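Deviation from plan, reported transparently: pyridoxal-5'-phosphate complex.
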Amino acid sequence: MAYDRDNRPDLSAYWMPFTANRQFKAAPRLLVSASGMHYRADDGREVLDGTSGLWCVNAGHGRPEIAAAVQNQLMTLDYAPSFQMGHPIAFDFATALAKIAPEGLDRIFFTNSGSESVDTALKIAIAYHRARGQGQRSKIVGREKGYHGVGFGGISAGGLVNNRRVYPLLPADHMRHTHDPARNAFSRGLPAHGAELADDLEQLVALHGAETLAAVVVEPVAGSAGVLPPPVGYLERLRKICDTHGILLIFDEVITGFGRLGQPFAGHYFGVTPDLMTTAKGITNGVLPMGAVFVRREVHDAVVNGSDAAMEFFHGYTYSGHPVSCAAGLATLEIYRREGLFTRAGDLAETWADALHGLRDLPLVTDIRNLGLMAGIDLAPKAGAPGGRGYAAMVAAFEAGVLIRATGDTLAMSPPLIVSEAQIDQLVSTVRTVISALD
Ligand code: PXG
Ligand code: PLP
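Because the crystal trials were delayed, the predicted structure below was used instead.
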């Protein structure tokens, strides 16, 4: 039976993730199907997808080629163990990923999510130093406002207080974030000021000793915290400081990977190559859970060739390299290639920036940020109700037929890379109407 407003599921059993459960269940927003650029809500309305689901459906919804590959793989080899056994499609997919990776990052460890990718990358970093006789290097450096998923490694490196405050954490320290509206408000693309914030890493080296630091993990463009592109020169500086002190640099590309900035990965876009890169989301167009850690070959070789044990790395998931996810991933890569989606965000970036910065005249808008096909809009918080305007804008936009994200009073948008210019207009003009009507 099809779901609709007259046939709603019982909402009580499902404890929803990162959701105000009581508020949601009192006034649910249910999506029942999707095709191309649109969802359909349970009242039959079409909703334009302004967020690629949760930053993952980069090629748009309901792609028949992916469905066919998944169906075929399910009926050929539905599941096979990956511990001490192999299956061909996982090797093929790793090879295909290595081909599109930034130079040198051609060893691939499969996971099932961004969170698992981050915790895996941190373990690889620590294992790498251990294999080279530097077992003291186990501390992690992250950044304020960073989001690296919800595993214990990821929340330790992360910098969003609500995700961290009640849990014990791994040894980690943090650089300052780069959000600086006083100097950079309404920057188009990269903000001009703030490269010197990378020198925070030098201070942490001075405080902790380089010999205790395993890795620095940053999102090249912070996503969850509200789309914060890095200041000009910042990532280059971070790379240099890491090299000086033998610290591994991890780019968390769970959002920026797979075409979001107009290149396959942010490493390409910025011309800065990390030692490890964490990915998920767009790797299968979001249709099946999967993640991958891309590892620089020397890092892989140090761990794999540097171990006396028969098994070099004591880590892995039941579903690492799941054959059906690999099939979805290969079909997804083929769509990205055939439709030029790795460069499309670059082709649209100016149109996107023009449309967004057109909202600058709205009195409640205090900052607008954009890069590739990502955007963040800060709203002035309502006195006594921080986050209220962001949430109200998200709900009003949904009712007006577009899906956007709100984090606090920041609105975030990241449409599928197949978005048309007319749909960009629709998205931004709906956001204008919605913000204009906020009290
Ligand atoms: N790293 C980064 C940079 C992410 O953006 C993760 C790790 C974790 O991935 P998983 O697959 O474990 O969720 C993410 C995920 C939002 C939002 O609205 C962002 C994410 C997930 C859900 C919502 O900003 N990013
Ligand atoms: N918990 C138990 C009891 C398990 O047996 C396993 C895997 O065998 C796990 C957790 C880990 O699950 P996964 O490999 O899916 O991460």
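The mean pLDDT is 97. We consider this an acceptable substitute for the interim report.
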